[in-house]
Amino acid sequence: MAGMGYKTLAAGVEATGEFVDRKSRFIAQIRHVESEREADAFIAEVRSRHHDARHNVPAWILADGRERCSDDGEPQRTSGMPTLEVLRGAGLADVCCVVTRYFGGTLLGPGGLVRAYTAATQEAVAAAESQGLVVTMTQITRLTCVIPYSAYGRVERLVSDCAGKIKDSIFAEDVQLTCAFLSGDEQRFLAAMQELMGGEDVCLVSDPTFAEF
Fold first, then answer.
1. Of 94, 115, 132, which marks where a domain is finished?
2. What is the pLDDT of residue 213?
């Protein structure tokens, strides 16, 4: 997915945007989702919220590259695809957008529909960005080290020298540190740690994941 990172909406928030053309109201609603099931649940929620609307057009993109959209009864390729294109163009993933249309009595024609669905979705994306709801997910590698207390200060400095962050510290018989690095940066840290610990391997490295760094 999009190289080493992508943008998404923060979990648990919703961004909305609205566009009106000849009394037809288009209301775009975007939320963070992490699976097809979560997308379906959000689509169902919007449909029940706007059960009196003529159309509720869904589009979603997941970080694994899967995406889907539907015209929900609008003429083919006039609504779902334009909505999806806006999400793609904004570099968003793990998001679902549903655009609700209340019909205003005048047919807008295919060109008018494409413009309206595009504009409503762009408004919602712009609202998300201006409200600080968009977060950047980067590929990071987490690792856990168990070290003696005497090494704690040096390891702490080493983490920051290698551009990492300490996410968690547990003080027991030894110190257990959980650190995060942008994927690739952990190599320098691991090499330095082996040297510091006289060749002993004290770090357990997790598989890279996408997260806020």
1. 132
2. 80
Domain encompassing residue 82: 5-132
- Map tokens 């080290």 to a residue: 145
Decide: helix, strand or coil at residue 17: strand
Residue where one domain finishes, among candidates 132, 159, 194 = 132
As beta bridge partners, residue 140 has 182, 209
Residue 141 exposed, middle or buried by CB count within 10 Å (0-12, 13-18, 19+): buried
pLDDT digits (tens, 9 = 90+) for 117-150: 999 999 999 999 999 999 999 999 999 999 999 9
Q: Which of these, 116, 126, 99, 123, lies nearest to 23 by C-alpha position?
A: 116
Give the N- to C-terminal CA distance of the chain in Å, as an integer: 17
- pLDDT tens per residue, range 157-179: 999 999 999 999 999 999 999 99
> 180 near 167, Cβ under 8 Å?
yes
User: What confidence tens digit (pLDDT) does each residue in 31-83 have?
Assistant: 999 999 999 999 999 999 999 999 999 999 999 999 999 999 999 999 999 99
**Domain co-membership, 56 together with 143:** no
User: Which residue is it, tokens 């997260």?
Assistant: 211
